[in-house]
């Protein structure tokens, strides 16, 4: 995948701006002071993970799955699901058989 | 901020080249969802077709629907695409509540089908080749209902209600490459492409392709370049384009709007716009998020799909005759002009006529019933031709009854009326309503003699050589026999009896 916001494999040097961007995408309110803290912490985590890159040789392809399986399919057959009551049982709020969610701001559905 | 005025379409074409791209989402008509065994039927009570997987409950795991993958491969093959030998699903992360998982499972940079084309026939007979960039598998989202606020839109709403019946329904997204050089025909090309795609998907039997119900949806990407400059403009993406006519209107509107913006010296904003059916215009929606913002990554809960070549070839063997080739064949078989063919296609009559012919009716008769009397009936009932409560086999039976002389055309229409009214098969209606041509020659002769005796002046005219005057007598006989006489035979008898 080419779209990872941070590319593992070395000194990533994650910036405050990148932390702010990720926080916005995750809808997390992060203060200025926290941006510095998290940038440092994420840096440590990423560099720890990126050590994997040090042992990966050219003959080892990148892996996205832990099991060597492919083509696992299910026949197109109905299976019993939940009733409306069951589906809504854990909903914080419901109305007219639907999940009720707070105002969605800022974006168009 | 007031938007710059729209520019006259002819002027747009004179000064700019439109670059057109189309994204079509089509819901597959599988029995179950993409990753779970919930039903996909349209219109069920809210949240009655859900399970832990499509609700994204902890501990649930998705499993891919094999039939959906087969449909995706068949669509790819029908669009002349290469089928990817290996590919993964990805998570597209975002923050609408329309997916309870907080991500949509989609394919990102490893779509199942790439690099195809669809040849599209325009009204004047020219063909435009539309290149297909990709077709990929994903899942549909739930449906939101925005409550409060005046418009039913998300802005101004106090809260929203979610129905997840649709969440997880298999969806194929088909994306064209930019279609260059369409000039003033851009609106027509867009519509013709979506029409051709719809017909192809219908022939494949993979989707209901009902734009009115949302099982087929179109997004229009459009940008303008200064004429012959080759400089790519900034594009808008118009969503909510829910009919073939709207596809054409949306392209036309965006051309005139963007030209206005550019001629006012302003930049076109890269954004999502929404088509407004009522005014045929578009309004601004959210600013386009960049690809990174969705933080795509490979879906760890689904293993890769690597369709074996034998499987792909087996599926290739199931492809139907392409709609355009079928049309050419039927046009030749039924000796139709281009215009007659187009009318049949537009009326949705082609399948019905073909099925009627397959049930034994001559093509001319079959065509005449469907485009004349039955089309009127459909029209007055406000339904599509295919929605009439009569089968092609029943129409063929009525045609056979006329051919054998058991019914005349008038009675045949009454039989059709009976079938449409739910009175059973044509033979049931004939029996129940006592509809049959009077074949008792003696009774007919008696009726003719009676009518001639009642109108001696007319009888005299006929005798004097004015054969067209026989119409009045035919009418009287038909009335006397409650329309159950063969008018042609009655006319012959009149001539015989007056001794003209």
Provide tags for this entry.
heterodimer, A: 109 residues, mainly alpha, Histone, subunit A, 8% strand, flat, disordered N terminus, B: 500 residues, alpha+beta, 9-stranded mixed sheet, 3-stranded antiparallel sheet, 17 helices, elongated
- How much of the sequence of chain A is in beta strands? 5-15%
Name the CATH homologous superfamily of the domain at 1-58 in chain A. Answer: Glu-tRNAGln amidotransferase C subunit, N-terminal domain
Helix content of chain A: 25-40%
Helix content of chain B: 25-40%
Q: Tell me the radius of gyration of chain B.
A: 30 Å
SSE map:
The complex is a heterodimer of chains A (109) and B (500).
Chain A: H1 16-25, H2 32-50, H3 52-55, E1 73-74, H4 84-88, E2 94-95, E3 98-102
Antiparallel strand pairs in A: 2-3
Helix pairs in contact in A: 1-2
Chain B: H1 9-15, E1 16-27, E2 64-65, H2 66-78, E3 82-83, E4 90-93, E5 103-106, E6 113-121, E7 127-139, E8 143-147, E9 159-163, E10 170-176, H3 186-204, E11 216-226, E12 236-241, H4 244-263, E13 271-276, E14 281-287, E15 297-298, H5 309-316, H6 323-333, H7 338-346, H8 350-358, H9 363-371, H10 373-381, H11 392-403, H12 409-420, H13 426-433, H14 441-454, H15 456-463, H16 470-480, H17 487-498
Parallel strand pairs in B: 12-13
Antiparallel strand pairs in B: 1-10, 1-11, 3-6, 4-5, 4-15, 6-7, 7-10, 8-9, 11-12, 13-14
Helix pairs in contact in B: 3-4, 8-9, 8-11, 9-10, 11-12, 12-13, 14-16, 14-17, 16-17
What does this structure look like?
The complex is a heterodimer of chains A (109) and B (500). Chain A has helices at residues 16-25, 32-50, 52-55, 84-88, and strands at residues 73-74, 94-95, 98-102. Chain A is mainly alpha-helical and 109 residues long. Chain A has a domain at 1-58: Glu-tRNAGln amidotransferase C subunit, N-terminal domain (Histone, subunit A, Orthogonal Bundle), CATH 1.10.20.60. Chain A has a two-stranded antiparallel sheet with strand order 2-3. In chain A, strand 2 and strand 3 form a beta hairpin. The longest helix of chain A is centred in the middle third of the chain and has 19 residues, at 32-50. Chain B is α+β, with helices and mostly antiparallel strands. A nine-stranded mixed β-sheet of chain B has the order 3-6-7-10-1-11-12-13-14. A three-stranded antiparallel β-sheet of chain B has the order 5-4-15, with no helix packed on it. In chain B, strands 8-9 form a two-stranded antiparallel sheet. In chain B, strand 6 and strand 7 (127-139) form a beta hairpin. Chains A and B meet through strand 1, helix 4 and strand 3 of A and strand 2, helix 2, strand 8, strand 9 and strand 15 of B. Chain B: Residues 351-498 form the Asn/Gln amidotransferase domain. Chain B: This is Aspartyl/glutamyl-tRNA(Asn/Gln) amidotransferase subunit B.
């Amino acid at each position: 995948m080419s779209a990872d916001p941070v590319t593992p494999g070395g000194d990533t040097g994650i910036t405050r701006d990148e932390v702010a961007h990720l926080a916005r995408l995750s809808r997390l309110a992060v203060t200025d002071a926290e941006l510095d803290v998290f940038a440092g912490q994420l840096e440590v985590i990423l560099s720890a993970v990126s050590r994997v890159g040090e042992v990966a040789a050219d003959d080892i392809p990148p892996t996205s799955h832990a099991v060597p399986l492919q083509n696992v399919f299910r026949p197109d057959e109905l299976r019993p699901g939940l009733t409306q009551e069951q589906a809504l049982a854990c909903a914080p709020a419901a109305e007219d058989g639907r999940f009720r969610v707070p105002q969605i701001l800022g974006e168009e559905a | 901020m007031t938007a710059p005025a729209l520019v006259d379409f002819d002027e747009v074409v004179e000064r700019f080249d439109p670059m057109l791209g189309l994204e079509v989402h089509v819901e597959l008509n599988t029995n179950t969802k993409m990753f779970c065994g919930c039903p996909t039927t349209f219109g069920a009570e809210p949240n009655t077709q859900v399970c832990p997987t499509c609700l994204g409950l902890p501990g649930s795991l998705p499993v891919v629907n094999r039939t959906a993958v087969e449909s995706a491969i068949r669509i790819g093959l029908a669009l002349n695409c290469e089928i990817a030998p290996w590919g993964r699903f990805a998570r597209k992360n975002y923050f609408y509540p329309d997916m309870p998982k907080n991500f949509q499972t989609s394919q990102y940079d490893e779509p199942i089908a790439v690099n195809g084309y669809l040849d599209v026939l325009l009204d004047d007979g020219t063909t435009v080749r539309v290149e297909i960039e990709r077709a990929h598998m994903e899942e549909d989202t739930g449906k939101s209902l925005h409550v409060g606020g005046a418009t039913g839109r998300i802005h101004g709403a106090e809260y929203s209600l979610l129905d997840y019946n649709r969440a997880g329904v298999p969806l194929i997204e088909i994306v064209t490459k930019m279609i260059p050089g369409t000039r003033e025909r851009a609106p027509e090309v867009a519509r013709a492409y979506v029409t051709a795609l719809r017909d192809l998907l219908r022939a494949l039997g993979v989707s209901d392709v009902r734009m009115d119900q949302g099982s087929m949806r179109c997004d229009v990407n459009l940008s303008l370049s200064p004429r012959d400059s080759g400089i790519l403009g900034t594009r808008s993406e118009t969503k909510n384009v829910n009919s073939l006519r709207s596809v054409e209107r949306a392209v036309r509107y965006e051309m005139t709007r963007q030209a206005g913006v550019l001629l006012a010296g302003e930049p076109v904003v890269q954004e999502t716009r929404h088509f407004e059916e009522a005014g045929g215009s578009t309004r601004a929606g959210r600013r386009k998020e960049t690809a990174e913002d969705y933080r795509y990554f490979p879906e760890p809960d689904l293993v890769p799909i690597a369709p074996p070549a034998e499987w792909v070839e087996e599926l290739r063997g199931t492809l139907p005759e392409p709609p355009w080739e079928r049309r050419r064949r039927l046009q030749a078989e039924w000796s139709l002009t281009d215009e007659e063919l187009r009318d049949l296609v537009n009326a949705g009559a082609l399948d019905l006529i073909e099925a009627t012919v397959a049930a034994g009716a001559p093509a001319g008769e079959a065509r005449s019933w469907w485009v004349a009397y039955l089309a009127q009936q459909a029209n007055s009932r406000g339904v599509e031709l295919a929605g009439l409560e009569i089968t092609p086999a029943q129409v063929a039976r009525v045609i056979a009854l006329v051919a054998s002389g058991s019914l005349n055309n008038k009675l045949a229409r009454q039989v059709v009326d009976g079938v449409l009214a739910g009175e059973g098969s044509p033979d049931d209606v004939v029996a129940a309503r006592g509809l049959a041509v009077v074949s008792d020659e003696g009774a007919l002769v008696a009726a003719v003699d009676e009518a001639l005796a009642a109108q001696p002046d007319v009888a005299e005219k006929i005798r004097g050589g004015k054969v067209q005057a026989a119409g009045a007598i035919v009418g009287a006989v038909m009335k006397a026999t409650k329309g159950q006489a063969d008018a042609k035979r009655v006319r012959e008898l009149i001539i015989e009896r007056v001794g003209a």
